[in-house]
Amino acid sequence: MPLDPTLFGEIDPPQRLLMGPGPVNAHPRVLRAMSADLLGQFDPEMTGYMNQVMALYRPIFGTANRWTMLIDGTARAAIEASLVSLVAPGDRVLVVNFGRFGLLLTEILSRIGAVIETVDAPWGETVPMEAIAAAIERTAPKLVACVHGDTSTTMAQPLDGLGDLCRAAGALSYVDATATIGGMEIAADRWGVDIVTGGLQKCLGGPSGSAPITISDAAAEHIFARRHTEAGIRMAGLEDGAGPRIGSNYFDLAMIMDYWSEKRLNHHTEATSMLYAARECARIVLGEGLDARYARHAAAGRAMTAGLRAMGLTVFGADATRMTNVTGVHIPHGVDGEAIRRMMREAFEIEIGTAFGPLAGQIWRIGAMGYNAMRHKVLLTLGALEACLLREGFALPPGKAVAAAMEAWG
Amino acid sequence: MPLDPTLFGEIDPPQRLLMGPGPVNAHPRVLRAMSADLLGQFDPEMTGYMNQVMALYRPIFGTANRWTMLIDGTARAAIEASLVSLVAPGDRVLVVNFGRFGLLLTEILSRIGAVIETVDAPWGETVPMEAIAAAIERTAPKLVACVHGDTSTTMAQPLDGLGDLCRAAGALSYVDATATIGGMEIAADRWGVDIVTGGLQKCLGGPSGSAPITISDAAAEHIFARRHTEAGIRMAGLEDGAGPRIGSNYFDLAMIMDYWSEKRLNHHTEATSMLYAARECARIVLGEGLDARYARHAAAGRAMTAGLRAMGLTVFGADATRMTNVTGVHIPHGVDGEAIRRMMREAFEIEIGTAFGPLAGQIWRIGAMGYNAMRHKVLLTLGALEACLLREGFALPPGKAVAAAMEAWG
User: Fold this and answer.
1) Per the domain annotation, does A16 fall within a domain?
2) Spatial distance between the Cα atoms of A15 and A39, rounded to a whole number of angstroms
């Protein structure tokens, strides 16, 4: 029976605790910031807010890059904008692949017409820097593309030294930090990488729909060499470059940088409410302090892991490279993973995550990100999971999980 | 001097009346809806809201199309998604071009690698249907692409009969209704066109960042024939098509439709707050009633035009095809257009629009869209403009504009 639009009432979602791999609950300050009214896109207050956003995201990305701004779309919009603006058809790209989001990079690149090489790790591990170095040597790529934290496997790829390897080989570098930004350290300048992108909906504690990006001067120069401004809006100082035109208009970083520069080239109409959200996310992050925030996420990850293990469950993947903000845990033999997730949601209003591909049905993914990387939320989640497992008949030592987590939080 | 992030305070934009060509002020109900907390993207309440959005936008698009949903990005994201999903490199496309946004269609299409033909009208006019028919006959396109209301010229292209012409020629059809949806009638089914897209930030009275789209069954079939699901998330029932792969992942309408279907393919993370906004925009539109809403915009356009003429100003473009929701008016000889705009903003907190390309410096564009298509806002704008023009020394008959507008509103 078709839905009758006249019957739909006020927006009224359940008050659910989102402890999956993201999206998570937004910080209430972010939701309130979005209720500010709109501005004309070239009003001085609006361009002032845009400049503030640029300044706010530089420390969060660990960079002094001038070109630090927002892409109007979800996290994957910024991934595609980066790749389509850096890579021309026929360019060779090396993808560091250790999970679903590494595969996503290859998928996007194949549509761009790149020649794709990969250096892989099994799901649950990361790629040793020596293997990356050897692959760069072997493939001589124009770009090396890598995920920082891949929520599909809960692994975080160590990135110190990547930029040096790439620059020595004459390659540019791209890092997808969607799942770690605001929760684990992003050190674009120390890593020496050229473009890093994120999203609001995980450790930044905002809604999906705006994607922070930072671009090095070297990458910006490469991109501006591909500048082809729209015929309808050409202006002085925006000479077209000699490089191949970027294959997308919406994701053309040259035009987007010109929009965020004092040139204020008309491109899209900035998603103002999402910009307000991104600004408030960043103010909250910097107000807490980056080190304190990373420590809080680390404590949450420690506590979650300790609690799960105290229940007798097996945590997934390599300890040394596990993301702090999402934990994979094996679904015990004989337990119906989806029945537990349903009971968690229906009895406790808590969401935990399922898994993709080879891990589907094998693990749950339990996050503690942004506004939800808090001790009481970790404890409530563990207590609820214990109750659900007991009710499903799984034998575990009752009462241990929460105690172990409190201990591990420190 | 670099901006110091620690100094940025609470979000606090000025309370400005946005009477330009968009974005405009959002309806307060829309801003409030965005402050609802987030949901997991496959939670039953979230997918329920997605289904409601599909139902809500069908009457707004004037369609029974199953595939009626949102693209996560600004209005131009939906334009690019439509074109990249319908058009393969080498396909011939006919663009109906009568302003900057027709040029934008050619710009996006040229990046896709389409062979582009145009049928043009001078800025300030629209293209006669007979000229479109002749151009279809001459060029035998696979797709005809057209803007409905082009804010750059304030003209609205009549579209009745377009679909019949296209179908008779075996062509698909696309219409960009960004600037008219929610303010002028959109009749996707009566026009017989295949894809129509919009944006929230004009007559729908919401923020930029979410773009409604409707897709006919014929277009959906064409697009599904190009389906190539990501390697990481393939599932039963999603067989790849034989057609050429769509050149973008983010804008791949086949995957986006699979995400909005009961298959719930994982693609992007839906921009939840923007979906709440889009839902509330639609509830407001349908609650007012489509006919009443279109009549209100028509009254606002009539009143604005009458008021401007009563001041002795010359309205731009053909009367018969003028958009109801934005009015172009010639900047009088000897008047500094930017000085007037600045005075309007600084003394009255009212924004009116500048212009692009051949009309830059020639006309102002004054909108009355969505929540701002109200009698008092039209009158306040006219009164303020009169005061600014008098202060700049322009000779006009004082007190006539507001009276003429009140009369014309009816």
Assistant:
1) no
2) 31
